[in-house]
# Entry
Amino acid sequence: MRHERTVIIKHPWLRRMRDDLRRLYRKHFFPVNFHPTAESEEILKKNSRIYRGSICECNSYTRINRNMIYNKPEGKWYCLECYQSMKAQNTKPSDWPLNRAEIRTFIKELAGPEGCQYDGRQWRSGGKEFTYARKILDSMGIPKDKQEDFLSLCRAFGGYCDCEILMNAVSSLLGEETLY
# Structure
């Protein structure tokens, strides 16, 4: 049996309806004019457990306007972005699309003149399309499918553009602190 159950709503009108229902559900469980008493505190704790275990909110963040996936072993709902990020972070480096030597070469090239031109004070970025990262991966002879897998891994570690790979993802990718 599958360990995941994904709910994806594509139609914009249905998404809006879903988000409105989630907001309404949240208002019911967490009223604005809340006056704490011993009894109401207990009710709030119970409501919080029920609400947090529902499909209404991502278990990692309080996102309510996202498609969700249920992780059966944990018994929790996550938005797709958080779940994919968690899966990528939990993979072993031996399962990554590039080995450590290739990652080290990639990082060196990305920081260099062909990439972000990082000099310790300023840099340039190719944006969320990973313009420089893709160019460098192409020059390294990495196939397109491996490139996409690697860039997804970079996103999971906080590298949402070329320069953020250097600022956020590189220490997780190499497993060591760096100068970037």
Remarks:
- Helices lie at 12-29, 38-52, 80-89, 100-111, 131-139, 144-156, 162-174.
